């Protein structure tokens, strides 16, 4: 058995145990398990395969420029519920703001405790992270994106952006925000993508 397989098995067992611990610690609260990740998007185009007639080359407008924005995605795999933020950077300051907004939107607090699973990026592990009431952070093992349900959000979030060229970040963000509003109602599709069989 490889180290990666051992890490995967250990995490899939530990997560339900952490949920049980929270339920015992907060017996009068609802316990939810969410997953979180960040996704970089920018003026460098996202290229994907497209259908074309036999003998014809598909055409995609591209303009390689290196200016970025970030999509912060929160998902509750067992229900397919999501929360989205479009922010200009990834660092401790912006992560703290994202946590605060998420806690408010998800209703975290005395009556609802949320176990939030994320990777071990430096700004997630910093001692400057301010964790809101009702939020409990759970870090994934290193080098284990296959354990991160939120990783599977990006392909569907990118759909209106692929094979397109945008003149400005503002133009891209407008399309991205419209897409996020659509994704809020796509709970069945998102649950099918993210609700791993071992997810608590």
Describe what this molecule looks like in 3D.
The chain is of the alpha/beta class and 200 residues long. It has a single domain (3-46, 63-194), classed as Ribonuclease H-like superfamily/Ribonuclease H (Nucleotidyltransferase, domain 5). 34% of the residues lie in helices and 20% in strands. The protein has 6 helices and 5 strands; from the N terminus they run αβββαβαβααα. The protein has helices at residues 3-25, 92-106, 122-125, 154-157, 169-183, 187-194, and strands at 30-42, 68-76, 81-87, 112-118, 135-139. A 5-stranded mixed β-sheet has the order 3-2-1-4-5, sandwiched between helices. Strand 4, helix 3 (122-125) and strand 5 form a beta-alpha-beta unit.
Write a concise keyword list for the protein shown above.
single chain, 200 residues, alpha/beta, five-stranded mixed beta sheet, 5 strands, globular
Secondary-structure element string: HEEEHEHEHHH
CATH superfamily name? Ribonuclease H-like superfamily/Ribonuclease H
Please report the number of helical segments: 6
Please give the CATH architecture. Answer: 2-Layer Sandwich
Radius of gyration: 19 Å
Outline, from the CA principal axes?
globular
Helicity range: 25-40%
């Amino acid at each position: 058995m490889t180290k990666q397989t051992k890490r995967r098995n250990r995490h899939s067992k530990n997560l339900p145990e952490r949920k049980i611990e929270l339920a015992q610690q907060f017996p009068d609260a609802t316990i939810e398990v969410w997953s979180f990740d960040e996704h970089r998007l920018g003026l460098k185009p996202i290229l994907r395969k497209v259908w074309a007639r036999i003998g014809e080359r598909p055409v995609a407008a591209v303009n390689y420029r290196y200016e970025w924005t970030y999509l912060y995605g929160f998902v509750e795999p067992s229900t397919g519920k999501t929360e989205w933020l479009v922010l200009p950077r990834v660092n401790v300051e912006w992560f703290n703001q994202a946590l605060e907004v998420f806690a408010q939107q998800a209703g975290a607090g005395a009556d609802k405790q949320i176990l939030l699973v994320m990777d071990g990026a430096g700004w997630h592990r910093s001692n400057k992270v301010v964790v809101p009431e009702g939020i409990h952070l759970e870090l994934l093992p290193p080098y284990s994106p296959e354990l991160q349900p939120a990783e599977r959000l990006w392909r569907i979030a990118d759909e209106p952006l692929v094979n397109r060229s945008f003149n400005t970040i503002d133009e891209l963000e407008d399309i991205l925000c419209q897409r996020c509003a659509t994704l809020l109602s796509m709970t069945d599709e998102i649950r099918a993508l993210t609700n791993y069989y071992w997810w608590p």
